Amino acid sequence: AGGGRAALRACGVHNVCRLLTRRAHGFYARDAGVAHRKNLGLLRRIMCQESTKFKNVWTTHSASPIAYERGRIYMDNYQCCITSIAQQPRLIYQKSKCAKSEKIEDALLLECPLGEMLPNPSDYKASLIVLTVQNWLLRLSADSGEVLEKVYLAGSCCKFFRYLSWDTPQEVMIVKSAQNKLPAAARQAGIQQTVLFYLAVFQVLPLSFIGMLEINKKIFGNSVTDVAVSNGILIVMYSMGLVRLYNFKAILEQFMEQPFDLGQEFNWNGQVGVVGKYPFGLPCNIKITDTPPLLFEASSLENAFQIGGYPWHYIITPNKKKHKGVFHICSLKDNALAKNGIQDMKCCSLEPDWIYFHPDMSGRIIHVGPNLIKVLKLKEVKNHADQMEIAEDFTIVANRENCVNNNVTVTASGRVVKKRFALLDDDPEQETFKIVDYEDELDLLSTVAVTQIGADGRAHLDFHCNEHGILLKSIPLKESWDVTYSHEVYFDKDLVLHIEQKPNRRFSCYVYQMVCDTARDDD
């Protein structure tokens, strides 16, 4: 207490709230993380200097998908790992080609939690959780690809686990099966399939089994099309656009029949085996016998539903095809539509605009159209503290200064020519936004805009101030960008990485590194 008062007197701050705010902003040199924040601030300033360039230092092509996770490039179905942190990407490890039965279906990067005691030294290093086609869950060393742990998932109940996701990032993991479908012969014989999905739940580091449950038609209804778990909420989606939310933690506690640990011998429903070992796998020890209490439900086109903001709001599209591209922002508390809560860009384009809550946890909303990005904020209506309105924080506009889109033109001879069709808002010949992302460590909003010039497409990656939207840096991408291909762009501190998927499963990866161009090298 005496030390805290001394710190207050020393810095001239006499208010505890102000002191905590100054600590959060890194005013005190002895606070943990201050040096890291200062270094990131320096990196941001260096990166946005005019003399700083991003140079294409490495390019590769592959016949199999290419993935990127935190400075590591994975190829050949995760058998090859390349670091992108070095001045030029270099090989970390190369494993022998795996059999089709060992093919990896999905993967998650697992990072060590701070300030926790873990049972094994290997737990303190990054690892990769992978799911194989034969229902093995493996934890691999990110540095060597060595198998650190392995769990067999599928017993007699399910043979098609395919998807990995986080319930709570880096804490609770969900392994989801593909949707169970009976063979045509079984359906013709009148056999009914009531179990649609299986979900296996794990705590990570140390890896421990929480339980496995089934999503059953008898409990959740016949028209279920998909399920997901996020932040303690079970999300059930239906064919008619309905989305229902349930308390996942309460389901685990209420319907858990018996807890099991990995490696534990068990006798379960006439089966004797070891939890997580072949051939028994995991017991389905969570049996939902009654419909859980409903937290919330909404109807939205294509089950599109998001929650965020402060106070809590949700975004939906009215469940009719004519409303595609129209977004309603409503209060989660009472379903009231916010003032100015209907967002409609009225764009005429092949690809629809999209909207989502800003990942910086500010509660703002990002709405992206072909030539316009709106960053919106929630604020109280004046003189109505219980009502919220949507206001524009800032906008980012595509550069279309040289674009002329007149339906009527006059030739040199004076003849009037009318165009039969107007250009679309995302016409390839006009600069169009394709990707919008957020770099949390540098607090920058990044955008990729593309212009097709004849058969050649040109793209540039722009960095904007996340607070005000001001353009700070623009990086031209050297490679041609075909708008008909699938693209992913990662901006990770001083690295830019572009992954492109061409027809016939051809993949390309382009790596750019930051270079302080003091010698004015045009490379």
TrEMBL record:
It comes from the Eukaryota. GO terms for cellular component: Cul4-RING E3 ubiquitin ligase complex. The chain crosses the membrane at residues 195-215, 227-246. The keyword Manganese does not apply. Keywords: Membrane, Transmembrane, Transmembrane helix. GO terms for biological process: protein ubiquitination. It holds the Pfam family DCAF17. This is DCA17 factor.
